[in-house]
Amino acid sequence: MTTLKQSMNTMKFTTILALAFACAYLPGSLFASEEGVVPVEVVEKDGRYQLLRGGQPFTVNGAGLEFSDISVFAAHGGNSIRTWRTDNAQFTGQELLDEAARHDVKVGLCIEIGRERHGFDYDDDAAVAAQLEFARQEVLRYKDHPALLGWIIGNEPNLEFRNPKVFDAINDISKMIHELDPNHPTTTALAGINKELADLIEQRAPDLDFLSIQMYGDIVNLPRYVRKIGLKGPYMVTEWGAIGHWEVGTTKWGAPIEQNSSDKAANYRKSWNVAIASDKKQIIGSYVFLWGQKQERTPTWYGMLLEDGSKTETIDVMQKVWTGSWPGNRAPEVGSLRLDGKRAEANIALNAGSEYTAEIKASDNKKQSAGLESSRIRSRRGMGISQEAGSGPQELRRGHYSRTGDLHKALEKQARLWPTA
To answer: How far is CA 285 from the centre of its chain?
Structure first.
């Protein structure tokens, strides 16, 4: 099966992706006036696809980044960020693009569109037309910024969808973008991929320049899916990272069991090697999820940073795969975590109002012993340590540690990764 514009005999692919939000922004369009628009395209040579920016090869070593410091991301070897909307409640797209340009980071800017699962009706012609006009204004606003890498039209529009007209709307937005902005490619970020979905997009959204795919634990099977579907053109992986909370084992009461930070780091590296670095012909880049911290199922499940900005081992791994070198000061390695002497798989039950001992065995990157011998946490009625929404778990109270100094604090934070329900 061929993809998108190949089916229309258009062999020139343009590309991109990336987006994010940063913590400190410069005003106005300071950088837009310095460099001007930089054309981005995907080219094919000898059966291999490659992203070109300003005529030069550009491999996306990216991350989804929202409300985190872009300078820190860039210092670890990242070169592109992706977002999920043009503006958020704190920063405008202009501020984001300017800050990214300041650190030589490129942005895959996402135009947010309506989702069926949130009530948007793609049979409502007036609503669809208004959405197209919104997208038009966003394109006119940001299309000439030098940090812009490309346009992502919607995030996971296929998740729980029923009306295929969503892809008609995406195609109309893509055509509008190509008319107004011939310098940047278009894509849409899909939740997973299968042949039925790929065929539907080829039929209803042929104007897209390439596919973008988002997978978590199942990403190790992506190369097999691509072969089975028969995808021939370029694609990007716009979200990947921790094993999803829907993909792991659960306690007997149905709470998903979260990996500790070291197990996550090992999984990131495996996913990179198996699904991304292994494809030398079609993948034009990827965005790991999430360079930041967020409460989603737990306060630590998907974020590569902790609430205070401390880094986990996943960031060490990403620097290694992006640059070939480990950071000089690496995050602690977690060996085992126990609560009341038990691992999470033991279906730990706690009594409200009681105190329990949490144990963690860890070491720093110099292989020095560093164990959190005990810390106490007060359980909350009707709420486990890992909450699906709302505020995070009650802060651990420090007990006795085998070491002193900054590592103690890091280990205490790592203890909050404990995945009981």
So the answer is: 12
